[in-house]
Amino acid sequence: MMQEVTHLVVGGGVTGLAFAAFSKDKDYLLLEADSSLGGYCKTVRKDGFVWDYSGHFFHFKHPDIEAWLRERMCGQEVRTVAKRSFIAYGGLHIDFPFQKNIHQLAKDEFIDCLHDLYVARALTASRPETSFRDMLYARFGKGIAERFLIPYNEKLYACDLATLDKSAMGRFFPHADLTDVIRNMRTPDNTSYNTTFTYPEGGAMEYVHALASEVDRTKVALDEPLVALDLCKRIAETGKRRIRYERLVSTMPLPRLLAMTGLEHDAGAFAWNKVLVFNLGFDKKGPSEPHWVYFPDRERVFYRVGFYDNIFHADRMSLYVEIGLARDAVIDTDAMLARVLEGLRLEGIVTDQRVVATHSVVMDPAYVHITGRSLEEQARVGRALRAHGVYSIGRYGGWTYCSIEDNLVEARELAQDFELS
After folding, report:
1. Dihedral of CA 160/166/167/169: which sign?
2. Could you please report the per-residue DSSP string of 356-371?
3. Is the pTM of this model over 0.85?
4. Per-residue pLDDT reduced to its tens digit, 288-311
5. Which among 193, 208, 235, 372 could bridge 230 via Cys, Cβ 3.0 to 4.6 Å?
């Protein structure tokens, strides 16, 4: 069967739904490989706990987008929360970001970090920053880099930081200079892009429902992945039909899209890691202050722990625990869970609480590895795809590091561009 549409949208996560919702041209078809919408923003409910696939919190910089979403979340309590986040280091909880709060370390470590920062700043002009690792040493010095920035990010990305571009995290990396560090000793200022966040009582899926409310469900095909693509003829194939399109908007991971187009590309330019997420529910409350805690200690299998219960002040501890793994890692979920629970006990997060509910999910890909090679190839293949009416957008479609709101903005702008063209 051949079907014809103006816009074929591949992927029913936030980005794909946002494009369909904001598009004035309603001649579209949205394909989703899974049996439900949401992508990584799915929410799980189990034994009274509400969890996302991972900690998906929204940091709105565009009030109009936030208002648009909230108007479509009738009856849903949405809290705006001032973030409290810490780094577990040497038995202490250091305020995040680490580099602005080294004065909270033991005296000898503080002196080491401050000295190395001062020396690094003096030598910045003569030290090349050819990688993310180089940038950390050049801008923050050995003390800060090796105590937190390098071990934490190596756990998160599950790779050698020397392989990443120096701007791999873009605006999301909390830079600080010597003046910021000194000023922060007297007047704390730990603001960052996510100083406040919003979260609905029903989980991140409520934002998905808001977007989906503006999408014609008769034009959504679930359990129907894209399997082949003829760029020249602008024909897509699923296991059920062939679709001739004018424009294709793809949010699937860029390497997967490229593999089915036949377009010549450097597959080795695109690397990533996966993340194993455990959602854990306990029978009673734990620490009442943090929203999430970072763990640079390589003895801990997890790099971050988040506390859902501290957003809505629930009476039972509800955690998400994230573990960064190489993309080819073989996962023994039971063994990993045992290591997680032991680590939580050693960190004092779990004391006499009892686990009453668990859930796990593997996000693959999770963090894309942005390198000089990937940036160049992404730009090149992006131009080639657009020449054939294919627009690859979103975190994985654009192979970038961005926020959920960035995805909404990008999708809306693309829909507006099409309207004007």
Report:
1. positive
2. EEEEEEEEEEEEEE--
3. yes
4. 999 999 999 999 999 999 999 999
5. 235
